[in-house]
Amino acid sequence: MSESFLRSTGRKVISRASAKELGAVNTLLVDVEQRRIAAVVIGRGKNAHLVEWAQISGFGPDAVMVVDEGALRPPADDREAAAIEGRLELVGKRVLSERGNELGQIGDLTFDAHTGALEDLLIGDLHVPAGSLLGSGSYAAVLDKSQEPS
Question: I want to staple 48 with a disulfide (CB 3.0 to 4.6 A). Which of 43, 56, 83, 103 is the partner?
Answer without folding.
Answer: 43
